[in-house]
Amino acid sequence: MTPADRVRRRAVGSAIVLSVPAVLLLLALFAVPLLRLLALSVEGGSLVAYQRALTNELYLRVIFETFKIAAVVTLLTLALGYPVAYVMATSGRVWQLVGIAFVLLPFWTSILVRTYAWMVMLGRNGVVNRTLIGWGVIDSPLPLLNNLAGVLIGMVHVLLPYMILPVFNAVKKVDPNLVLAAEGLGAPRWRAFLRVTLPLTMNGVAAGVTLVFTLSLGFFITPALLGGGRVVMIANLIEEQVRELLNWAFAGALSAILLALTLAAFWGISRIARTRSA
Amino acid sequence: MRRVRPGRLLLAGFAVLVCVFLQLPLLIVFPISFSSAQYLQFPPPGWSLQWYERYLNSPNWLTPTWLSLKVAMATTALSLLLGVPLAFGLTRARFWGRDAIEKLSMAPIIVPTIVLSIALYGLFANLKLIGAWYGIAIAHTLLALPFVVVVVVAGLRDFDVNQELAALGLGASRWRAVWHVTLPQIRPSLVSAAFLAFISSFDELVVAMFLGGANMTLPKKMFDNIRMEIDPTIAAISALQIVLVSALLALAARFGRGGGMPGR
Known about the structure:
The structure holds 2 protein chains of 2 kinds. Chain A is mainly alpha-helical. Chain A folds into 2 domains: 1-41; 48-277, MetI-like (MetI-like fold), CATH 1.10.3720. Chain A has helices at residues 3-41, 48-55, 57-89, 93-108, 111-122, 127-134, 148-173, 176-184, 189-200, 202-217, 221-226, 234-243, 248-277. Chain B has a single domain (58-260), classed as MetI-like (MetI-like fold, Orthogonal Bundle), CATH 1.10.3720.10. By secondary structure, chain B is mainly α. Chains A and B meet through helix 1, helix 3, helix 4, helix 5 and helix 7 of A and helix 1, helix 3, helix 4, helix 5 and helix 6 of B.
């Protein structure tokens, strides 16, 4: 064994020793409980819980609704977030910092605080309806609370920063000379954007879409408070099954389905992104 | 002189509107918290500090606040104690199973919180740990660990190991070299990691809801209160929380890495 080998072996040894405490915690309190929960869902070797979740119309609708909400929220955050990220990344340093501050301040504010504020704003007599009526945009109050609209507004607000920040980083990395070159060669500005900037920022878009979509699937607080019991997502259903009905097998099956959807989305989107950029 | 194009102006206007949308909840919370009305009213008819007084004089609110602070501090300490060594382990050597460990340490942010919550609820109920503050702190440590690992690994990747080797060559023990050379150099990452861990625990609702039992953390108390009635006391607490987070954010931006931005 050469001295270099010995040094390397010692480095590996200490790296493993340093990792052990955290790994033990993750195995004991993350991996094991999760596997235990999944085992509960097939208790007695029966798939009854899964059959119930995937054939009962009521539960199927919750699963479908969750998927639909996640998709709509992802599209909305992309449509609102990309332009913001683009403007921020192509502005001067000062405006960039101002923009980041405006994105991070709500980002770091507690979700409960923000949801509370939306409940105050979106009610029949809330600030939003009164302002719109005052401006003469609408005649009678819009139903914005205790329904899908409220949940969508709340979720888009919570998740927008997760879209803006990765896209911002991606746009910042695009060499402005490439855009100038495209324009110098006669491309109109919009075509230079579509052919140069947009393809080069697809990695950031993929990261944002992955984050927003997978986080949306597991949302609990926003639908619970802004949905007024009328919008039920998988997470709300799981909570009800455990706390009120103590139906562990069914809660386990729903958890497995939610987990599978999340991992599939995670894997699927990153795969699409990879083939696109290759 | 560069001419500002109308297209750009339109785009910037749109961006400003979205930024206003992002600030709306924060803008609404402060006036309500200073309202003199007896119930929720906006805009407030007059100003007073009654909601702050009510919060600061109510054990129903202060007990959950102290519990949340205690849990968040324990989470911060624990996740740094476990996460920083893990980050060293992941960056300093290549070994069989390293990628698996890295994936495992990231997994708690991918798995939906509700799933992790009920999984731990089942386990903790068997262990009679429901209601124990350290039970919540340990569970929050799992959620904070990915943030700590990402930020500290990034810090260690930027750090020039030769400095540590130089200290070793000059006769320092490995522990001394890490303590006096490496850790001070990655201090910004450590500050950001601590900030992320603290906030992620202090704001966390779902895990605490299941594991807290009768012992409510501040988010759980707020959640219950919002469900029952929209009481302006929440606005006062919200305003205080926004100020606390802004102060922490300013500190993290001053001493931290990348303004506390996740993953940077």
